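Subject: 2-polyprenyl-6-methoxyphenol hydroxylase-like FAD-dependent oxidoreductase

B.,
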Amino acid sequence: MDNENILISGASIAGPALAYWLTRYGFRPTVVERTPALREGGYKLDIRGKAVEVVERMGILADIRQVSTGMKEGTFVDRNGKAVVSMSAEFFNSRQEQDDEVMRTDLSRIIYERTRSDVEYLFNDSITSITEGQNGVAVTFERGKPRVFDLVIGADGIHSNVRRLVFGDESRFLHNLGAYISIFTAPNFLDLDRQELYYYAPGKFVSLFSAQDRSKAMSFFFFSSPPLSHDYRNIEQQKGLLTSFFSGDGWQIPRLLKDVWDAPDFYFDSVSQIHMDRWSAGRIALLGDAAYCPSPASGQGTSLALIGAYVLAGELALASGDYTTAFTRKRQKAPGFSQGDRWRRKPAAAGRPPSLDRRQSLC
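Prediction pasted inline below.
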């Protein structure tokens, strides 16, 4: 096997999932993550269609079922909190067959626990430079010593550091869809039990739900807006933007806007997609949201990340580490892969790379 030593940037979902498959196929992955530990927080994640088969082959489907949100119903309310209409969670979210839903924190933890004994994780560090040479990629870090890897994979999200260093400024690839979202934990002051409430106003809406842990609730804010000038890492600035856009709105919004200032897991970003003509350059490639973010509104990001990790590792294994062949095959299949659920064939046997036909249907 060639090119066994692989650096992955990002320890959310795509990165550890790729590390799992690479390890299984005999590679030696290292995962670098800028946060001091696994990042807490995040919203509900859909695991849909063939991504369910991927997590089953990873041996984590039972773990996911155990921490499933188990949502019962969704209810639309007016500005006074009066119920307008209710429907089952399954109907509202259009789930089919074995589809499931899990909190981002839980899925991240499950995959990390499956890989931590076999994968080198470098927390509280980040890549500062990437220089490709004939025999490898020289990488420098904010804190760690410089190292050389055979390949580098950027699985570090919509604001990918690897993409910026190798492919250029994100303004070339990020397409703002004219909206923003914010997610944060709040006290479960309405005593919700696997129930989600939705409040709509012109150009904006807010939802609030509680899943397994009834001591807390998760809030989701959405509003339409032209592109805003803000620093995606300046949390205090983002909280100010959110409160200004929702100031004066009804329902429980005033209470939630007070809670936002104490939220331990505040998230704010544009609803955007990543469009790229190519996801690889030499020994460096991108995966998941870093390469083809479909936007949070699609509900497909997690499934695409899980399937993409499976495909990329399988191509590298099938090519015995020949990254040129593996990246080319994945790139050739990219148009179908963006539709996510075109994987229709039976999974290959555990312990070996998927067949070529299998990966064609996946992509």
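The longest strand covers residues 174-187.

T.
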